[in-house]
TrEMBL record:
GO terms for molecular function: oxidoreductase activity, acting on the CH-OH group of donors, NAD or NADP as acceptor. SUPFAM superfamilies: NAD(P)-binding Rossmann-fold domains. PROSITE patterns: ADH_SHORT (PS00061). Belongs to the short-chain dehydrogenases/reductases (SDR) family. This is SDR family oxidoreductase. Keywords: Oxidoreductase. Pfam families: adh_short. It comes from Corynebacterium phoceense.
Length: 240
């Protein structure tokens, strides 16, 4: 794995599309060597080629896959825990337990697995400059109809961020909480491939883009080691 010794290394999970891909591109433009990690290697390899980074296949729901990622990384200065997603918008009484399990395993336990696996490398970053950016959501703060499982999962990401901060690992922790972001794959996944319903979420609305969120990732990552952004909420101007 060709990771330059003179460059800071950023790991971005869920990097094959959407906010993860955009964040990887933004960080690379700022001089980071970016390790892009996700399940779809065809997309990752193209992205890594575009940005001069490194592609590693990763399934955050599989501990062996997470351990394999950690084993091949000589150093980590920044971890962007971006892998996640939602399934369904049914009322709580009609939700499927398997959807809850998937959302918790991906959003919550996936964040814990990757953080645990890479924490010692982040703690070893020069001058206590290690940084974790957890991709939360306004859904972790505000309950909405049909969102019970996803609300719970994203609240779990908030708890992880808070716990890491008070445990004082000499690693900075930032929680980014986007509001309405027009990312096609997120919505398609939530509506189980129904493109019409997925598009309707954003039709007629002012929406943020994946690149907007990536700009926040890039800015937080550019700050000096004594500076920690605790929580940042990101919304389009029309979203209350």
């Amino acid at each position: 794995m060709a990771i330059p010794a003179d460059k800071k290394v950023a790991v971005v999970t869920g990097a094959s599309s959407g906010i993860g891909e955009a964040s990887a591109r933004a960080l690379a433009s700022d001089g980071w060597h970016v390790v892009v990690a996700a399940r779809r290697m065809d997309r990752l390899e193209k992205l890594a080629e575009d940005i001069g980074g490194t592609a590693v296949q990763l399934d955050v729901t599989d501990q062996k896959s997470v351990d394999a990622l950690a084993e091949v990384l000589p150093r980590v200065d920044l971890l962007v825990n971006n892998a996640g997603g939602a399934k369904g918008l049914e009322p709580l009484a009609e939700t499927k337990i398997e959807d809850w399990q998937w959302m918790f395993d991906t959003n919550v336990l996936g964040t814990v697995r990757v953080t645990q696996a890479l924490l010692s490398k982040l703690e070893a970053a020069p001058e206590n400059s290690g940084l974790i950016i957890n991709m939360g959501s306004v859904a972790g703060w505000n309950v909405y109809e049909g969102g019970a499982a996803y609300n719970n999962a994203k609240h779990g990401v908030r708890v992880i961020s808070r716990a890491l901060r008070i445990e004082n690992h000499n690693v900075r922790v930032t929680e980014l909480d986007p509001g309405r972001v027009a990312t096609e794959e997120f919505s398609l996944n939530r509506f189980r491939g129904d493109a019409g319903k997925a598009a309707a979420v954003y039709d007629g609305e002012v929406n943020l883009t994946a690149e907007d969120i990536a700009e926040a990732v890039r800015w937080v990552a550019s700050l000096p080691a004594h500076f920690n952004i605790d929580v940042m909420t990101l919304k389009p101007r029309t979203q209350s």
